[in-house]
Design brief:
Elements: H1 3-11, E1 14-15, E2 24-28, E3 35-36, E4 41-44, E5 48-54, E6 57-62, E7 65-68, E8 91-99, E9 103-109, E10 114-118, E11 122-136, H2 139-147, E12 152-154, H3 156-177, H4 188-203, E13 208-219, H5 222-237, H6 240-282, E14 305-309, E15 312-317, H7 319-328, E16 336-338, E17 346-347, H8 352-355
Parallel strand pairs: 1-4
Antiparallel strand pairs: 2-8, 2-12, 3-8, 4-7, 5-6, 5-8, 9-11, 10-11, 11-13, 14-15, 14-16, 16-17
Helix pairs in contact: 3-4
Length: 368
């Protein structure tokens, strides 16, 4: 190897960084003893910045481009006089590459509920979560304030701190905004802009910026949401009286269906027992006459009654309740009644099942 090749190997150096990760924010160019050779080529790609640190002091910041590390573009090298020491590297420095692209889809959320005074619900608590993006806007400040001498700094190392800043700013903004909880969903975009403005002033001290900030959801505690659902149901039901009548009609229909099912089950059981008796008789030993099997009749159907009074409907009432009403004089012979299956309204004395209520009178009291 000639002297020219030797000199070329000693003095020509290429410094560059190709990031193959998704979370590296700062990477230090590693060189043994941190020796940077005079005339080295420094490549800075788009989305990067290179911070040159000499003897512990920040010397310069290089934006995207190709640079020759010489005295004509680095005045700090003019103070170094070590060219006569066996072609050793003239200076020992460090080069930090800073990723200036956006780090997207970062998550934030309130770890604990936020207390606030709602104009409609009063004191209440809410939770919120969303996403944000972050970018290094000032590589030199970011290196000095956050990274220090870390050779490989990732987004995970600062994301927790940023989330705390976001939650603190969000809590302050949401508590002083005076927006009702029910209207917050319609104002998440405006709230996001206000919170982002609050955050930007704080993270700027770290050399960072928040290009995007989104509030995805604001929720109430489960107990409050349950009460809100009931209130919504009442609003949908509208007239409370009509709503109660609708529920009573549905309950009556369910009761009639259950009674019909019971009758069907009883008839099926009776038919099954009858068939079993016939089969036993046919298979009886010695041709003995089969014993008569008696099955109980199906239970009677209990009617429920509706009473018409002054153009309004009351009920349903059981027969026992109707008997008490007849005894108290609330039910008379001329009172119009109706039960499921009856063809229109009828006077109480015209209904055989109710007419007997007016023929049973108590005996005269003692001493009358």
């Amino acid at each position: 190897m000639g002297i020219l090749d030797f000199l070329t190997g000693e003095f020509i150096d290429v410094i560059h960084w190709v990031d193959d990760t998704r979370d590296t924010m700062v990477w230090r160019f590693e060189r043994e003893d941190h020796e940077i050779k005079y005339g080295a080529k420094l490549t800075v790609r788009e989305g990067q910045a290179a911070v040159f640190v000499h003897e512990g002091q920040l010397a310069d910041v290089f934006t995207p481009g190709l640079y020759m590390l010489e005295t004509n573009n680095m005045p700090i090298l003019t103070t170094i006089n070590h060219w006569d020491h066996g072609f050793k590297s003239p200076f020992k420095s460090e080069i930090y590459y800073v990723n200036t692209t956006r780090f997207n889809d970062l998550k934030w959320g309130t770890k604990n509920p936020i207390m606030l005074r709602d104009p409609e619900f009063g004191p209440t608590r809410i939770r919120a979560f969303g996403t944000y993006s972050v970018r290094v806007s000032d590589p030199a400040r970011f290196l000095v304030e956050i990274v220090g001498t870390d050779g490989e700094f990732t987004m995970d190392e600062i994301s927790y701190q940023i989330r705390n800043i976001i939650v603190q700013a969000f809590s302050r903004v949401i508590a002083s905004a005076g927006i009702p909880v029910l209207d917050m969903a319609a104002n998440t975009a405006d709230l996001g802009k206000i919170v982002a403005a609050e955050i930007s002033g704080i993270v700027a001290e770290y050399g960072l910026t928040i290009p995007e900030f989104y509030i995805e959801n604001i929720s109430l505690p489960p107990a409050v949401e349950e009460v809100l659902d009931k209130r919504t149901s009442m609003g949908i039901a509208g007239n409370l009286d009509n709503y109660m009548k609708f529920n009573a009609a549905e309950a009556m229909g369910s009761e009639n269906s259950a009674m019909a099912s019971s009758m069907g089950a009883g008839m099926g059981a009776a038919m099954g027992m009858g068939m079993a008796g016939q089969m036993t008789a046919q298979a009886g030993p010695w041709g003995a006459a089969p014993a008569a099997v008696q099955t109980p009749p199906p239970p009677p159907v209990e009617h429920v009654w509706h009473v018409a009074e002054s153009g309004k409907t009351k009920g349903p009432y059981s027969k026992a309740a109707m008997g008490r009403m007849a005894a108290d004089g609330e039910l008379t012979r001329d009172t119009h009644v109706w039960t499921p299956g009856q063809d229109g309204w009828m006077r109480a004395e015209d209904v055989a099942e109710l007419a007997q209520l007016f023929t049973i009178l108590p005996p005269p009291p003692p001493g009358a």
